[in-house]
Amino acid sequence: MRLPVLLCLVLLAACARPQEGITLRFWAMGREAEVVGELVREFEAENPGIRVEVQNIPWTAAHEKLLTAYAADGLPDICQLGNTWIPEFATLGALTPLQPYVDTSREVVPADYFPGIWDTNVVQGQLVGIPWYVDTRLLFYRKDLLRKAGYDHPPRDWAEWERMNQALKQVLGPGRYPVLMPLNEFEPQLSLALQQDDALLRDHDTRGNFASPGFRRALGFYANMFEQGWAPKMSETQISNVWDEFFRGFTVFYLSGPWNIREFRQRQPASLEGEWGTAPLPGPHGPGGGIAGGTSLVVFQSSPHKQAAWKLVEFLSRPAVQQRFHAIIGDLPPRRSVWKRAALGEDPLAAAFGEQLERVRPTPKVLEWERIAQEMRIVSEQVVRGGLDQDAAVRRLDARVDDILAKRRWIVEQQAAQEAAR
Questions:
Q1: CA-CA distance, 297 to 170, in Å (whole number)?
Q2: The whole model's pTM is what?
Q3: What is the pLDDT of residues 107-119, one digit of tens each?
Q4: CA 215 – CA 376 distance, rounded (Å)
């Protein structure tokens, strides 16, 4: 009888001991890392057994640090991951599939998210991230200068945009331009390309598809802006201050993201209050699509605390928490319900982003995408600055992209051969 009694006493003593808490390691980037600390304290109060360590990773070093941590088995439990990085870490097998967690969640409701943004987190049929905040590119524009050119609305399709640019150039004169699309940025070209029916990659994302009619049309429209003198052949480093130049009248249309709403509001001269706005991107035949940017929350496969990490994802996904996050930092929420709660739809400057987000499209979900995007920018700049023939440009771009995707193509071919042999 003594052994069972002794065993019960040992078990009771073990139950009486307070359990050690869980410490979650959360890597976040830039300003978001600073702000999320305020929200994490509330999460810890709700979950006294969980403590969260937030590490601020500079954006410039984040990608290399994540890959180094992966190789050294030192990844955190939860991380803020750029949408274009998700396919890379999914391919490495580093991300936890989240659909089983979503299926039982009351906090994360897929239908409440902008569909194009949600889609960036689905890789090879698996959900591996939850959108945290979003961004896209659209037009910031000067209403007063448009009126001088005879227009009371922003462009609604490509043809109207070209007519506006022609009229604006006559009003602006030399040294000023209807459109600013810095040549060191790939986002303008990419936005126009995503408006096309043709995919940017072909053959199961193993080869470039830049010689397609769709990309040729986008490149032609982009290059014509510079050929006509409607856009300056300049990079952002050649412009002293884009905000001051915008209000000085150096440009009428500027393609940029939601962070500039706050910047423009802070820098606008009193005389131009209400004389500038935002508008969705025009497409070839009407409202056009755009980039599905932003970051998502992921849980790494190596985490020993996946359930606790998911609790934090759920907490940061709550509409009320996302509303506070937006109020603090200005990042745009990925959930439609938050747009209603935060009255973003009533803000004319933000409303255009909400409209654009309904039409965004993800970029190809390959780990090589960022290298491909830079090649697209380089070749586009060669067309604009160096006069490279557009037919030669798309052939050159396809050849470079095919080289980048050579390893991926080999893997796909091997997999196909193995399946055929079965």
A1: 48
A2: 0.90
A3: 999 999 999 999 9
A4: 11
